[in-house]
Model the fold of this input.
Amino acid sequence: MVKAYTQEHVYKHPWERVTSASWRKYSDPENKRTLNHVLAVDTLNQKLDPQTGKLYTTRALIIHAPGPWFIRKIVGQDICNCVESTVVDGRNKSMQLTTRNISLEKFIEVEERIRYEPHPDNPSGWTVCKQQTSIRIKPFSALASMAEKLEQKCAERFMKNSVKGREVMERICKYLESEPASGVSL
Done:
């Protein structure tokens, strides 16, 4: 069984500001209090393709493992390692992030896709964010019957964390708006 959901959010800020905020989301100390499930973020690779102008970035994230405490006890781990792959196409104003867990995959598979693009109704002033998340708890031993309930609990936690992420992005966008001559900062 797979629990999947899609969310869409409109930032009333231009694409350049929103994508700049996305890069800063985990680094600001104030945001670390809000996004306290994210324990560490490291850039593993960054490459700019000179022909297409696309920026490719891979980051490692360490997060506090989702799910009830008793499941974390059973799997023997309370952190989860994830890889985030980002493609920024500045020419076409598109930023896509794909995040997957690389630990605990024996028990759970999570994939989150986020795409930022100019909003069709106000392309120079607004940005639409489309988020798709799928969560699959792999049935194991006596807990097989609980997989669907666990997927639901994990989905609820991811949705709550998504709201926190949007709050952080809005806060950063407002900060960037007040900066003189704010531009895209990588």
About this structure: The chain has four helices and seven strands. The first helix runs from residue 15 to 24. The beta strands are 3-11, 38-48, 54-64, 79-89, 94-101, 108-118, 127-137.
